[in-house]
Design the sequence.
């Protein structure tokens, strides 16, 4: 670091090196993207939007907001957009973590990174022996803002609506953030978005990066009661008033106008996920029951790093976790096309035989 960096920063940047490595000739089963390319209509819409790039983008994302509000059955005033859901999370840590934060010890690593960046006192709560979140472990956390990915990453396991209600009711002085990046791959009615009208201490974070196939566009959003949404929007307008560029807004709107395509993609991923899960179990892998677009797996006789390296040599990238030790033998496998999964399974069968 340079001598000019403000000493208040305790930087622990998100590591994208492995993700970048996988961009050249590899099957990308490590970053939880979907393998489906944008539609022709979406590409056309983005191209048309480029004709007016000499003007600033709409800071309120009005057309996008109206379409999304109707789809989500919430008010326009209950939605805030971010440059990816990571920007939304950054706004949340900026605005609401004055009394600290709490999140599982095995979850999305960006929470810990943001907590350290903002100097937030954070509490990491262990998952139980089955890698599940126990709602009773989140009782009376003293006003800390609570962050929960549901379904959780990297496990793919999901909390029931009743369990989430329990956490909310046990912490009336805390803001509860439910990160639903992967909820579209779960069973119907798994989202807690409708609860924002009942609970004034609930915010729901979503993204276009997963089920809506727009990881490269960087578009996320938050849903919360009007008071919380206004707080987040005020933070947004203070630091990044034009945070969603015109082409991303056009891409997002085009995706929302083709919900049939989105649901078709989701259903295909779920079918391939369940088929892959069964075949992995047939060759001796333990596979958690994922409600996301990835699987969390380990083999009793082969360590996780060996499996990771064997696939990497065959130009298949998956995600290996060295820390914490509790999951050092696990790998997270993104669900790609049926052909990609079959290719991966063939390699794994060879590894298991050897």
Sequence:
């Amino acid at each position: 670091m340079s001598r000019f960096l403000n000493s208040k920063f305790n930087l622990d940047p998100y590591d994208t090196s492995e993700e970048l490595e996988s961009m050249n000739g590899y099957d990308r089963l490590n970053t939880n993207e979907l393998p489906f390319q944008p539609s022709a209509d979406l590409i056309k819409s983005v191209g048309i939007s480029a004709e007016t790039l000499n003007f600033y983008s709409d800071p309120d994302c009005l057309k996008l907001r109206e379409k999304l509000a109707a789809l989500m059955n919430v008010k326009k005033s209950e939605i805030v957009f971010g440059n990816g859901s990571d920007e939304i999370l950054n706004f949340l840590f900026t605005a609401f973590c004055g009394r600290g934060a709490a999140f599982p010890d095995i979850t999305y690593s960006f929470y810990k990174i943001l907590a350290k960046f903002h100097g937030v006192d954070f509490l990491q709560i262990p998952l139980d022996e089955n890698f599940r979140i126990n709602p009773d472990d989140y009782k009376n956390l003293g006003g800390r803002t609570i962050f929960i990915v549901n379904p959780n990453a990297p496990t793919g396991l999901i909390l029931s609506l009743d369990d989430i209600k329990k956490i909310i009711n046990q912490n009336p002085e805390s803001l509860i953030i439910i990160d639903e990046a992967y909820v579209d791959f779960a069973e119907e009615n798994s989202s807690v978005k409708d609860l924002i009208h009942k609970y004034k201490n609930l915010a729901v974070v979503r993204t276009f990066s997963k089920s809506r196939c727009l990881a490269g566009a960087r578009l996320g959003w938050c849903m919360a009661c009007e008071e919380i949404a206004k707080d987040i929007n005020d933070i947004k307008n203070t630091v990044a008033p034009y945070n969603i560029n015109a082409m991303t807004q056009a891409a997002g709107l085009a995706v929302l106008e083709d919900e049939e395509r989105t649901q078709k993609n989701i259903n295909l991923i779920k079918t391939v996920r369940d088929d892959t899960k069964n075949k992995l179990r047939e060759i001796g892998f333990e596979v958690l029951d994922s409600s996301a677009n990835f699987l969390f797996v380990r083999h009793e006789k082969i360590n996780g790093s060996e499996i990771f390296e064997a696939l990497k040599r065959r130009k298949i990238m998956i995600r290996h976790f060295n820390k914490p030790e509790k999951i050092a033998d696990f790998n997270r496998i993104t669900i790609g096309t049926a052909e990609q999964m079959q290719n991966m399974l063939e390699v794994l069968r060879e590894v298991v035989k050897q």
